[in-house]
Design goal:
Radius of gyration: 24 Å
Number of helices: 13
Number of strands: 3
Strand order of the largest sheet: 1-2-3
Distance between the termini: 73 Å
Strand content: under 5%
Helix content: 40-55%
Order of helices and strands: HEEEHHHHHHHHHHHH
């Protein structure tokens, strides 16, 4: 089904009819009553787990047991953030400068989640695009590798700076997803892309966590835009743990001294030319 035409503010200004300018299908509140996706909030609080409620918010319908298990698998897989994570470092730097509240530091860490730091959004975009070609997996994989090597010189969702033969989180996510019938069209396509890239490079470049999550969540029916947000949110608890540790046990106002890698490679000492010096007043 085609997407509805995108609205724009000009149409409201010209028509003067603002009746549907702000609309939402997520929730509503009125005197003594709150509904989320049509369900009474009291019943959701009493009967749903957090991940079931999150699935309902994002997808609009309640998950079944299989979907709940797979969604939970995705959200708990990024709990391991360390100092090699830009997100954890950004969060701790901010916490060291602003220890009064965890919120700015948490925002800093989430803002550091992107294509370079391992967001699953780009792998999901790749898989949705490749699946849309309607080709056999091997042909789609070859075309996807061509496309992304030309587009940005790397294939998203594959490779890790530390784990060269297998990315432990990705291996586990993939295995459990297969066991729970959650490694579907997009997961199998990612497998084919891994094989094709290894053939081209002459060495294995393994599926990483971002790739595994991109495939798993796409097969669960989430769109890449939402998948990018879920990737950042899956880091959230690990970031909060780092922030609390930094405030309790860290060093206020973190710096990067020479001993830890700071290096100046600019011009040597030099005076300002006489003709650029202002006269003393």
């Amino acid at each position: 089904m085609a997407d509805p035409p995108r609205r724009h503010v000009g149409q409201y200004v010209s028509s003067g009819d603002w009746s549907d300018y702000w609309t939402t299908g997520i929730s509503r509140a009125e005197g003594g009553k709150i509904r989320v996706r049509g369900y009474p909030i009291e019943e959701l609080i009493e009967h749903l787990g957090y991940n079931e409620a999150a699935f309902l918010l994002l997808r609009g319908e309640l998950p079944d047991d299989r979907e709940t298990a797979l969604f939970d698998l995705a959200l708990r897989s990024g709990m391991d953030q360390q100092f090699i994570s830009s997100a954890a470092c950004a969060a701790r730097f901010t916490a060291s400068a602003f220890p009064d509240s965890p919120v700015p530091a948490l925002a800093s860490g989430i803002l550091a989640s992107g294509s370079v730091t391992g967001s699953p959004q780009e792998p999901a975009e790749m898989l949705v695009e490749a699946a849309g070609w309607g080709l056999p997996d091997e042909e789609a994989a070859s075309r996807a590798v061509d496309t992304w090597l030309e587009r940005r010189g790397a294939v998203p969702g594959l490779g890790h700076p530390m784990h060269k033969q297998a990315e432990p989180r990705a291996v586990t996510v993939r295995r459990i997803a297969i066991e729970k019938s959650g490694w579907g069209t997009h997961g199998k396509l990612l497998d084919a892309i891994e094989v094709e890239l290894a053939r081209r490079k002459g060495r294995l470049i393994p599926i990483n966590l971002a790739g595994a999550l991109g495939a798993l969540l796409t097969d669960l029916g989430f769109e890449p835009l939402v998948i990018g947000g879920l990737g950042a949110l899956s880091y959230g608890m690990a970031l909060l743990a780092h922030i609390a540790e930094e405030v309790r046990d860290g060093v206020p106002l973190r710096i990067i001294p020479d001993a830890l890698g700071a290096h100046y490679d600019g011009p040597e000492d030099r005076p300002l030319p006489d003709e650029r010096k202002r006269r003393k007043r």
